[in-house]
Amino acid sequence: MRDQFPNNLLIRILSVQPNRSIFLNVMKVSFPVIALSVLFVMVQIYFVITFFPWTYPDRFYYLFITSPIIAAITAAMLAIPLVWLNMEVVHQVQRQQKLVEQASDQLEKNIEQRTRFIGYVSHEIRNPLNGIIGITDSLDASDLDEEYKSKFKLLKDASLDLGAILNDILDLSKIDSGALNMNPMPTNLIHVISDLQDFWMPRAESKGLTMRLKVSEKFPPWIYIDPSRFRQVANNLLSNALKYTDKGYVEVTLDCDKDLKTAVYSVLDSGPGIPNNLREAIFDPYYQVPNVLDVPQKIGTGLGLPIARQLAEQMGGDVWIRSTVMKGSHFSFSFDINEVAPSDIPEEVIPSLNMDFTGKTVLVVDDVQTNLLVASEMLKKLGFEVETAINGAQAITILDKRQFDCVLLDDDLGDMRGHQVLEQVKQIQEKTRFISYTGNILDSHKQRSYKLGMHGFIAKPVRMSTLKNELDRVFG
After folding, report:
1. In the CATH scheme, what is the homologous superfamily, with its name and number, of domain 185-337?
2. Residue range 54-74: average pLDDT?
3. pLDDT category, 2, cuts 50, 70, 90?
4. Distance, C-alpha 394 to centroid of its chain
5. The pTM is what?
6. 25: helix, strand or coil
7. SS3 (DSSP) at 451
8. What is the CATH number of domain 361-475?
């Protein structure tokens, strides 16, 4: 990529291809020199033939002797500007290429610094956000009157929206830096979209919407795909439909072509629709649909659809829309089908193992008191006996004295890193499951956690369902 960039810049500067630019610029100077040299030779021949009172052989002999001299003089006249111009053009190209390489290096450093900054800010914001979402999840709103139930719902929805905005910003940074990777694996896609429907069904019911799911009978049960990235695109389309549709229905369909090469996930709704002139604009980053249909604007960054399209393209497909104003929208997401061979199909995983954690012990280690409170409340509801530590030193002291079934370990504990705690106690806690409990959700950090010996990974802000699923997986 870098090798192509300077060449493209050179083309823009000189308006020609690099290998042609030297030739054309040389010719611009060479043609006048050659023309003058030819003219000089012709004048000499005319002068000799006309004015020299010699016989014909004498004149021919004179021209035969002097022509090489004239040719040598002409070559010298031509060579000097050619050499000079060639060296000048080469030096110019080298200077431009060096400037471009320096700019490219600086750009890479800026992207890396921005990604690191966004990751740091994301980590710091996720700690208080984890407190808000965790506490609202743990509270029981059933005894509240209608006014407070409405306010409680607004608080919960706002915290979830903020979490979604953080994820969008982080994903956009990954896309810009080329760090957004796909991890295809055998996936039962029907289970994935069924789980999505179950997750969003309460939101649909609270708005009085009918929610339907249709899956083609010929769709293969297992395909190779990155389940988290597919879920991200599908979730974005479905959540948008539920956000903008106030009455009627939302329908999800999963279909494929007869050759089982391409699949299409679609979301149809009876919402306000999108005007024709805005159907491509909504895929531009940060774009917000103007209030042209007397529909109140919704909270968002304008990043969801652009990110969804980028992810779809990495899966071999695209995202597009068909819409009729005031009748609804039809968003579609296509992707390649790569069927899983029967020998590679994993054993069916029960969506909810419903494991009983009653009596199991867990140590939660985090330097933020709110995070300790949130995790402790959730774990107690699952049946765990919970103990907490506010830093790495305290955690090591506790782990030296007693055995635990599980340890939730924050990555940054103030006095040390989480993996340093693991390194010091893993010999005496051989049967303990260690789970990284962190605000750093970068894929590289997740993989690094597993390499350092973690058995699981939970990103903040944590939901009860996410915590339960990861604990089921780790203990199952």
Report:
1. Histidine kinase-like ATPase, C-terminal domain (3.30.565.10)
2. 58
3. very low
4. 38
5. 0.57
6. helix
7. helix
8. 3.40.50.2300
